[in-house]
Amino acid sequence: MAKLVSKTYGEALFELAVEENKLDALMEEVEAVIQVLDDNEDFVKLMCHPKICVEEKCSVLETVFHGRVSDELTGFFLTIEDKGRFKEIYDILSYFVDECREYKKIGVAHVTSAVPLKDAEKDAVEKRLLETTKYESFVMKYEVDPALIGGMKIQIGDRVVDSSIKTKLNNMAKSLSEIQLSNETGKCKE
């Protein structure tokens, strides 16, 4: 249900941004709002508190956002609150940002390696991703996980390419156990 809500409202905001030719401006505002909400978790808790009436919450939204973000975004927040959906604000705004990035052919790549990558290695990874995907640019997010032993894991959306030593070892162990199982079941009884 939450996914349907975030898709419905996120898509509505995206369509408005495209229609009004304000995609870049709204995307920038939404990314800033997400950061503000991350930094002020109590604000989201306040906006989701069941004992505070909708009118008061809308007044708070007006006070906080009016004049700081576009009228379209302020109105959007008021609509979300009026419909009782503010608890899904992160998912809604994230969906919007993802839609904007897809529209602008900007991919988001999560790269996990066993050791920190050097700048030249990062450039090579990004270059290779640009050559092998439909994207024209990338937001690169790097992480280090020593448990990978070596190699790296790259995730773009729901696609994962895992060339880590850890995964290769796990796959080999699985293959060996399947061989052992098939040998044991294939023996003839005497």
From TrEMBL:
Its main location: membrane. It is a peripheral membrane protein. It is found in: Cell membrane; Membrane. SUPFAM superfamilies: N-terminal domain of the delta subunit of the F1F0-ATP synthase. InterPro entries: ATP_synth_OSCP/delta_N_sf, ATPase_OSCP/dsu. Keywords: ATP synthesis, Cell membrane, CF(1), Hydrogen ion transport, Ion transport, Membrane, Transport. This protein is part of the stalk that links CF(0) to CF(1). It either transmits conformational changes from CF(0) to CF(1) or is implicated in proton conduction. F(1)F(0) ATP synthase produces ATP from ADP in the presence of a proton or sodium gradient. F-type ATPases consist of two structural domains, F(1) containing the extramembraneous catalytic core and F(0) containing the membrane proton channel, linked together by a central stalk and a peripheral stalk. During catalysis, ATP synthesis in the catalytic domain of F(1) is coupled via a rotary mechanism of the central stalk subunits to proton translocation. Belongs to the ATPase delta chain family. This is ATP synthase subunit delta. It comes from Jutongia huaianensis. The lineage of its organism: Bacteria, Bacillati, Bacillota, Clostridia, Lachnospirales.
